[in-house]
Amino acid sequence: VLLRLFFSCRSSAKLVAPLGCLVSRQKHTLPDLPYDYAALEPHINAEIMQLHHSKHHAAYVNNLNVAEEKYKEALAKGDVTTQVSLQPALKFNGGGHINHTIFWTNLSPNGGGEPKGELMEAIKRDFGSFANFKEKLTAVSVGVQGSGWGWLGYNKEQGRLQIAACANQDPLQGTTGLIPLLGIDVWEHAYYLQYKNVRPDYLKAIWNVINWENVSSRYATCKK
C-alpha cells in the first residue's frame, strides 16, 4: 500500500483515485515546532532538538518528496518494476515524516505528570494503573533492538489501548492498524548527544515533557 495514502487520499475507496493524487500532488513540508528548541530543557537539550527537527526530520521530508516524484514518473511510464523498487523509500521516509510530525506534538514544555479524564480511565482499564502503563511502555521502548519507536495506540476494532514497538521508521497505523496516540522515538539521534548510549535515562526524562493534552485529544478524536 502506498505511503501516499496516509496523507491526501485516505478517503478514496479505489486504488485509481489515490494513484491519481500523485500526479498533481503538493510537496510535503517540514512542520514548525510548537515551541522553541530549548523549551524542553533540561530533559531534552536544544542541540538535540535542533538537529532532530531541522536535519533528521527535514531529511525524511526531502527524501519522501524525491521518492514520490520518481514514483510519479514511473507511474506515467507504466514502469511497475521501478514502482515496486521505490516502496522501501516511500515507507521509510513517509514513516519518518508521519512519526516525527506526531512526536513533536506529543511533547510540551508544560507536559509531564499524568493524563486526566477519559484517557486516564482507559489507561486504568487496559493497564491496571498509570504506573503499570508507564512501566510497560518504557520497557517496550528500552527493548527496541537498534532503532525504532515505542507507541501507545488505539485498537479501534477492540475499543482498547495497546502498546507496541515499531522498527526503524515503520508507521504504527500502516504496519499494525493501531491509531497512534503517543510515540517515543528511540533512535539514537533522539538522545545520544545528551544521554550517550544510556537509553533508559532518556526514557526516564521524557515522561517529564509528555503532552497529555495532545494525547488525550488524539484519543478523543479516534473514538468518534
TrEMBL record:
<dbReference type="Pfam" id="PF02777">
    <property type="entry name" value="Sod_Fe_C"/>
</dbReference>
<dbReference type="InterPro" id="IPR036324">
    <property type="entry name" value="Mn/Fe_SOD_N_sf"/>
</dbReference>
<keyword id="KW-0944">Nitration</keyword>
<dbReference type="InterPro" id="IPR036314">
    <property type="entry name" value="SOD_C_sf"/>
</dbReference>
<dbReference type="Pfam" id="PF00081">
    <property type="entry name" value="Sod_Fe_N"/>
</dbReference>
<feature type="binding site">
    <location>
        <position position="100"/>
    </location>
    <ligand>
        <name>Mn(2+)</name>
    </ligand>
</feature>
<dbReference type="GO" id="GO:0005759">
    <property type="term" value="C:mitochondrial matrix"/>
</dbReference>
<keyword id="KW-0496">Mitochondrion</keyword>
<dbReference type="InterPro" id="IPR001189">
    <property type="entry name" value="Mn/Fe_SOD"/>
</dbReference>
<dbReference type="InterPro" id="IPR019833">
    <property type="entry name" value="Mn/Fe_SOD_BS"/>
</dbReference>
<dbReference type="GO" id="GO:0004784">
    <property type="term" value="F:superoxide dismutase activity"/>
</dbReference>
<comment type="function">
    <text>Destroys superoxide anion radicals which are normally produced within the cells and which are toxic to biological systems.</text>
</comment>
<feature type="binding site">
    <location>
        <position position="52"/>
    </location>
    <ligand>
        <name>Mn(2+)</name>
    </ligand>
</feature>
<comment type="similarity">
    <text>Belongs to the iron/manganese superoxide dismutase family.</text>
</comment>
<feature type="domain" description="Manganese/iron superoxide dismutase C-terminal">
    <location>
        <begin position="115"/>
        <end position="218"/>
    </location>
</feature>
<keyword id="KW-0464">Manganese</keyword>
<feature type="binding site">
    <location>
        <position position="189"/>
    </location>
    <ligand>
        <name>Mn(2+)</name>
    </ligand>
</feature>
<comment type="subunit">
    <text>Homotetramer.</text>
</comment>
<feature type="domain" description="Manganese/iron superoxide dismutase N-terminal">
    <location>
        <begin position="27"/>
        <end position="108"/>
    </location>
</feature>
<keyword id="KW-0479">Metal-binding</keyword>
<dbReference type="InterPro" id="IPR019832">
    <property type="entry name" value="Mn/Fe_SOD_C"/>
</dbReference>
<keyword id="KW-0560">Oxidoreductase</keyword>
<dbReference type="InterPro" id="IPR050265">
    <property type="entry name" value="Fe/Mn_Superoxide_Dismutase"/>
</dbReference>
<protein>
    <recommendedName>
        <fullName>Superoxide dismutase</fullName>
        <ecNumber>1.15.1.1</ecNumber>
    </recommendedName>
</protein>
<comment type="function">
    <text>Destroys radicals which are normally produced within the cells and which are toxic to biological systems.</text>
</comment>
<feature type="binding site">
    <location>
        <position position="185"/>
    </location>
    <ligand>
        <name>Mn(2+)</name>
    </ligand>
</feature>
<dbReference type="GO" id="GO:0030145">
    <property type="term" value="F:manganese ion binding"/>
</dbReference>
<dbReference type="InterPro" id="IPR019831">
    <property type="entry name" value="Mn/Fe_SOD_N"/>
</dbReference>
